[in-house]
Amino acid sequence: MRPNKVENPVPPAENRASAALVDSYARRIDYIRLSVTDRCNFRCVYCMSENMNFLPKADLLTLEELERLSAAFVGRGVRKIRITGGEPLVRRNVMSLFLGLSRLFGKGLDELTLTTNGALLARHAQELADCGVRRVNVSLDTRDAEKFRAITRWGELAEVLAGVEAARAAGLKVKINCVALKGVNEDEFLSLTEWAHGFGMDVSFIEVMPLGEDAVHNIESFLSLDAVAAALAERLTLSPSTHASGGPAHYFDVAETGGRVGFITPLSQHFCDSCNRVRVTCTGQLYTCLGQEDRVDLRGPLRSSPDDSALHAALDEAMRRKPRGHDFVAQWSGARAPSRRPMSLTGG
Ligand code: SAM
Ligand code: SF4
């Protein structure tokens, strides 16, 4: 479903720093996904090439700039920040950013969270919990060590499982994210779900998206989540859940396990009408939609002056430009070129 365009007046300059972020389709933006690095200790086949070129460090927002930017967003009504990447936990001193962001609790921020490949989670889980992180998403497409290595190229399954364990021990609620890949992990959807639910962890299945240098390869490994649902339904009873995470997943309760399964189907566009989020890359580019190329630079305004007025003007500009919905279907069908922007730049 697609929302209708409405008049979107620019807030008067004197109110800008506290005016809510509302786009031209009357959608209120209260969630940011903030990528803190494009680097990663894995090279997942659907995300990065093995000899990936990373950005020069000077292009990245500093930790102080990331904190300042987050504070500006929270001042404008953002209640949830998800830290992502690349792999956020490989960013040097990233824990000092979490500590800084934890100071935004009580100033409007309700939730600080993280998406991680889990490899360094064992090292940081307790500190994350101490900074007020309550939930983490851990990406795990398979529990087979060899397949895991084949998908991630550089990853060690045991490290990720240790990370999941440490997160649970620190009291963090863990959700497993699994990209469904044709011919790769099709045989594991049921066992992965039963395993996760056995430890009280929800699972979300994700359709592979045509992003990055190898977008065409991703189209070949695309598997509709209908196939995942069918595989689960052979042994489990799924009924639509009342649970809503504020994200694009459709949730189902599983009668046999008491757990939940989410299905993230970006191609279906069913979530565009209620889209409440924007993404900021590690270089400070605000992408108003995961599936579109339009972006607004925030790094220039951040660096141009210690005062945030230029930054707020850029946020208002982004609100005017947030598109109605994504174009994955056109990209998929070949009507438009797939995005070459990898997920590691914008974050998942
Ligand atoms: N490195 C962290 C991780 O893997 O969780 C955070 C960043 S990663 C880009 C975020 C999520 O995007 C992961 O769950 C990953 O599986 C997913 N992802 C990456 N490339 C994708 C693609 N082409 N299609 C669908 N999901 C993708
Ligand atoms: Fe790294 Fe996450 Fe991309 Fe895998 S999906 S290469 S872990 S950023």
Secondary structure elements and pairings:
Blueprint: E1 31-35, H1 63-75, E2 80-84, H2 94-102, E3 111-116, H3 121-130, E4 135-139, H4 145-152, H5 157-169, E5 173-180, H6 189-198, E6 202-207, H7 215-220, H8 225-233, E7 238-240, E8 249-254, E9 260-264, E10 277-280, E11 285-287, E12 295-297, H9 299-304, H10 309-321, H11 328-333, H12 343-346
Helix pairs in contact: 1-2, 3-5
Iron/sulfur cluster (SF4) binds at residues 40, 42-44, 47-48, 85-87, 117, 139, 343-344.
Question: How would you characterize this protein structure?
Answer:
With 348 residues, the chain is α/β, with parallel strands linked by helices. It has a single domain, classed as TIM Barrel (Alpha-Beta Barrel), CATH 3.20.20. The chain contains twelve helices and twelve strands. It has helices at residues 63-75, 94-102, 121-130, 145-152, 157-169, 189-198, 215-220, 225-233, 299-304, 309-321, 328-333, 343-346, and strands at 31-35, 80-84, 111-116, 135-139, 173-180, 202-207, 238-240, 249-254, 260-264, 277-280, 285-287, 295-297. The chain has a twelve-stranded mixed sheet. The model has no long low-confidence stretch (mean pLDDT 89). The structure holds S-adenosylmethionine and iron/sulfur cluster. S-adenosylmethionine (SAM) is lined by residues 40, 46-47, 84-85, 87, 115-117, 139, 177, 179, 206, 208-209, 211-212, 218, 343-344, 347-348.
